[in-house]
Design goal:
- By secondary structure, the protein is mainly alpha-helical.
- It has a domain at 133-327.
- 90% of the residues lie in helices and 0% in strands.
- α1 runs antiparallel to α2, α4 runs parallel beside α6 and α5 (239-266) runs antiparallel to α6.
- The relative contact order is 0.08.
């Protein structure tokens, strides 16, 4: 009994208590173990109550400490929730701002795509127009080359004619006759001199006229050069190509005028002068023939200069067209 009481007090449990109660029930009523057992049960009850009170107090303290910690955790969680709500609202605003920016960027991208499609279409149109202009310019170059070849052939014919006339004049000069040895009357000499003076005056007038024409052509050449320089500096769009075409046409007309004037000059020697008058008129016509040869050579040089200008203008226009293609 004593051992059971000590064991029950050492480790109070349901099994030890039930074993002790069973021992008390089996003992006789007048046994001193009943009183001791009752005292042990009372002590056990008191110990149990004290232990329960102690555990409750400990649990109460633990609950209070945990409640404090829970309150702190609740405050911390509440502050964190507030921060999360603020962050959520700010993130929502940022998301809305980003969506707005994304929409504006999509609109801008769509506009850029439309602009790019238009630019591609314009580039294709410009390429087609440039190809047509190149074809026209090539045709103009071919026509100008053909005309210049014709003009050069005409100039060669004119130069050959002048050389033939010069050869004739040299032959006539080598066959000069002494006027004193001829049986010519005074009246015939007077008429010959008068006719000689008339032809000399006519030739002088023609020389002056040709000089005026040459000066006018030189002025026109300078004007064409200045116009070419002006159009070269102001070459901006496709309309300048048309200006160069007009300039080329004007140069071709100028070449026609040069060749026409050269042919007229080559044919301007009077054929009605006979050998007798040509002998006396040789000294007055020889300078004119020299001037004609010089002018024909000068006109040939002017034609070559005009042809160089045509090639330069076409090359500049072609280069500018290529640059416009690359920029586009």
């Amino acid at each position: 009994m004593k051992n059971q009481i000590l064991e029950m007090l050492a480790s109070p449990s349901v099994e030890t208590v039930m074993a002790f109660v069973k021992t008390l029930l089996q003992a006789p009523q007048d046994s001193p173990l009943i009183a001791a057992g009752s005292a042990g049960v009372l002590c056990l009850i008191v110990a149990a109550l004290f232990g329960r009170w102690r555990r409750r107090r400990q649990l109460h303290k633990i609950n209070e400490s945990w409640q404090v910690r829970l309150d702190e955790l609740n405050q911390t969680n509440q502050s964190k929730l507030t921060e999360l709500d603020n962050s959520k609202s700010s993130l929502g605003k940022q998301v809305e701002t980003l969506q707005t920016k994304l929409q504006s960027m999509e609109k801008t991208l769509e506009q850029d795509r439309t602009t790019l499609h238009k630019a591609n279409a314009n580039v294709k149109t410009l390429e087609v127009a440039a190809a047509e202009k190149d074809q026209k310019l090539q045709k103009t170059i071919d026509d100008a080359a053909h005309k210049i070849a014709q003009h050069q052939a005409s100039l060669k014919k004119a130069n050959a004619l002048l050389e033939a006339r010069n050869a004739e004049l040299k032959a006539l000069k080598s066959r000069q006759l002494d006027a004193a040895s001829l049986p010519i009357s005074a009246s015939l000499l007077t008429s010959i001199n008068e006719r000689d003076e008339g032809y000399a005056s006519q030739l002088a007038k023609r020389i002056d006229k040709l000089d005026e024409q040459r000066s006018a052509l030189l002025r026109e050449r300078d004007e064409l050069a200045s116009r070419e320089a002006h159009y070269t500096h102001q070459l901006i769009d496709g309309d300048d190509t048309r200006v160069y075409l007009d300039e080329t046409i004007a140069i071709n007309d100028e070449l026609d005028q040069l060749v026409g004037s050269g042919a007229m000059q080559a044919e301007s020697t009077p054929d009605e002068i006979d050998d007798t008058l040509a002998v006396d008129q040789l000294h007055s016509t020889e300078p004119s023939t020299h001037d004609q040869t010089t002018r024909t050579s000068t006109e040939g040089t002017t034609a070559q200069t005009l042809w160089d200008r045509v090639k330069t203008s076409v090359v500049k226009t072609t280069d500018r067209t290529k640059i416009e293609k690359s920029d586009a």
